[in-house]
Design brief:
oxidoreductase; 20% helix; binds fe (ii) ion; peroxidase; single chain; alpha+beta; binds ligand L6N33NVT; eight-stranded antiparallel β-barrel
């Protein structure tokens, strides 16, 4: 009989249970019997894996990120589809706090490599979500998918001032792991990479700490490494009509297989925090158009006061400058285009020149980057005074397919069938 236990359950077996595990091969991973919860009640709880949309998009943003981009190394379509099935099975378990494979880190045959790496033993689900995406390069001539490339997955244009490093940009596949515990996020990515051995190789990956956006009105707005509240005017999971209109791809968008999915743009944006830290408070606030304490518009008092670009300050000049970040990025100047931002702070050590290698790993989901991210970023790249302090060094664009409906379904089935 298969044992039903979580990662924590395995450690709680006691001597008798541990002896049983040691005596033979024990299936240590099955899904919970309870129906899934819509919102995790505590930071330890799981989010549901199955659903119409992938988790990790409107899911209330967790505090930690491990993002990975893969190159596919097999040229066999069937092997790629098989890998996505194996990844889906592992992801269904990992997100519920189970081990990656049915035998786990210590339940398999002693002469075989374990089907879980073990560093998350004893740790709860920690709100782990795993979200998969397909890069434009997957739709070249290797897998017979060229005819299925969605129009919205058109390559991003070159933006003024960007200094992209090809080795940390792009990729055939991506997986975004978000969790409240960094060890849980890293464990998940490591196990997916292990399962993919011989079929994919890691192209680049990025760790993030400190979410820089709220994706639910129940969450407080966090701060980015420039010290400002970030995510105030974000698309949020409660904005049901806007999500349907601006986040989820629909059948009529030109790629029926993407219906219920969304398009992901990533940008690794380095900040010269040392220069920023020597900039006056007034100038910092002018650059964003919001104050640093409350995150309120410069003409207002409270964070959620409506932005008014006609308001004037005591000097008779616009309270929010014509080139303020929030004005340049505002939907009213881009055909009402919204983004669902869910980025993270990063510090990748130091650069050897006495500066922190720090910044924002920008993540945004949307229905069509050609109408949403691209016009907003063109405007920011051209006129945003923030550009004096930031540099875009990595870029990614991925089509994230719809959610996995049930245990018989898999990530990307609609693309491969
Ligand atoms: C192309 C999209 C965007 C990039 C790239 C971007 C970079 C970036 N942003 C901040 C800090 C803040 N951004 C804020 C608002 C905001 N930013 C974007 C888009 C991009 N930002 C949008 C669409 C908005 C909302 C505009 C609106 O409707 O009001 C804010 C204000 C608080 C908030 O509303 O989130 C901050 C602060 C940094 C530091 C950065 C690059 C490093
Ligand atoms: Fe921004």
């Amino acid at each position: 009989m298969a044992a039903r236990m979580s990662r924590r359950g395995l450690l709680g077996l006691g001597a008798a249970g541990a002896a049983a595990v040691g005596a033979g091969v024990v299936a240590a991973n099955t899904l919970f019997d309870e129906p899934p919860v819509a919102h995790a009640a505590s930071t330890a709880d799981p989010f549901p894996f199955y659903g119409e949309h992938q988790a990790g998009i409107v899911t209330p943003s967790q505090d930690r990120l491990h993002f990975v981009s893969f190159d596919v190394t097999t040229d066999k379509r069937a092997e790629l589809a098989e890998l996505l099935q194996e990844w889906t099975a592992a992801a269904a378990r990992l997100t519920q706090g189970e081990q990656a494979g049915p035998f786990g880190a210590v339940g398999g045959a002693p002469e075989a490599a374990p089907d879980d790496t073990g560093e998350a033993l004893g740790l709860p689900a920690s709100g782990l979500t795993l979200t998969v995406g397909f890069g434009g390069s997957l739709f070249d001539d290797r897998f017979g998918l060229a005819g299925k490339r969605p129009p919205a997955l058109a390559d991003l244009p070159k933006f003024p001032g960007e200094q992209l490093i090809p080795e940390i940009s792009g990729g055939d596949l991506c997986v975004q792991a978000c969790a409240h515990d960094p060890q849980v996020a890293v464990h998940a990515i490591r196990n997916l990479a292990r399962i993919g051995f011989g079929k994919v190789s890691v192209r680049w990956s990025q760790l993030g700490f400190g979410r820089t956006s709220s994706t639910s009105r129940a969450q407080a707005t966090p701060r980015n490494l420039m010290g400002f509240k970030d995510g105030t005017a974000n698309l949020k999971l409660e904005d049901t009509d806007l999500l349907r209109e601006q986040l989820w791809a629909a059948r009529e968008d030109g790629a029926a297989w993407m219906a219920g999915g969304s398009y992901l743009v990533t940008r690794k944006i380095r900040m010269t925090v040392e220069t920023w830290d020597r900039t006056s408070l007034a100038e910092q606030e002018q650059i964003f158009g919001r104050n640093k304490g409350e995150g309120a518009p410069l003409h207002g008092k409270k964070e959620f006061d409506t932005l008014d670009f006609d308001a004037v300050g005591p000097d008779g000049k616009p309270a929010i400058a014509a080139d303020a970040h929030v004005r340049l990025a505002h939907p009213s100047f881009h055909g009402n285009a919204h983004l669902l931002r869910r980025g993270y702070n990063f510090v990748d050590g130091s650069d050897g020149l006495g500066r922190l290698d720090a910044g924002l790993f920008f993540i945004a989901y949307q229905r069509d980057p050609r109408k949403q991210f691209v016009p907003v970023q063109l405007s920011l790249a051209k006129d945003d005074p923030l550009n004096e302090y930031i540099k875009h060094v990595s870029s990614g664009l991925f089509a994230c397919p719809p959610g996995v409906r049930d245990a018989g379904d898999y990530w990307g089935r609609t693309l491969f069938e």
